[in-house]
Amino acid sequence: MEIVSMFMNRACNLGIFHGCKLPNRGPVISHLCYANDVLFIGEWSEKNILALNCLLRWLSLVTGLKVNRSKSKLYGVGVSPSEVSALAGVANCEAGSFPLLHLGIPIGVNMKRAKFWKPVLDKFSAKLSKWKARHLSFAGRMTLAKSVLDSLPSYFLSLFAAPKCIIQKMEEIRREFVWGKFVSSHKLRWIRWDFMMQSKKLGGMGLGRIH
Length: 211
Known about the structure:
There is one protein chain. Helix 3 links the parallel strand 5 and strand 6. This protein has helices spanning 2-13, 46-63, 81-91, 118-127, 130-135, 138-157, 164-178, 193-197; strands at 20-21, 28-29, 31-33, 38-40, 73-74, 94-95, 100-102, 105-107. The radius of gyration is 24 Å and the shape is elongated. The protein starts with a helix and ends in a 14-residue tail after the last helix. Helices cover 46% and strands 9% of the residues. The strands form four sheets. Strands 1-2 form a two-stranded antiparallel sheet. A two-stranded antiparallel sheet has the order 3-4. It has a two-stranded parallel ribbon with strand order 5-6. The protein contains eight helices and eight strands; from the N terminus they run αββββαβαβββααααα. The mean pLDDT is 84.
């Protein structure tokens, strides 16, 4: 990845590859590197694709590593699918389409609409599953509900503002799990849910509110 960054920075400085310049005097973004993956970002042109082909060829000659084009995809923002397919042929990779998942985050969808939150709700429900509710004590269910709240929803909610109906659905899933509704539908609830969500400093159970 260090060699990829070196090649891309040099190519951008020499005008071989043209990245995307952010507005308001922002930087030019040409690539984002991860542990074993890289995302190339640039202006939509055949010249850029040909330059990228050369860069990947140089990378293969220098490092001995060959890029698997069958696992690579080309996405075009604001261009027709036919243009994407044409340049994907030049890049010798597959043509991608929106929406897509990147690092577990949906890209190219309107997250203000509730239907696009279904994968999040499914993951949330899977973490607080029936068998866990059946075999855990009340304290265990409380601990698991806190850990799931701190990780899974926070990752999405730090990026997107969820609709109110989604927040309410998450609270409903969490509430039913804590009270062990999957174990017995007639189980008594001895404490108000508002008290459960209050911080321990205020005398509550410290479960916290998703909102």
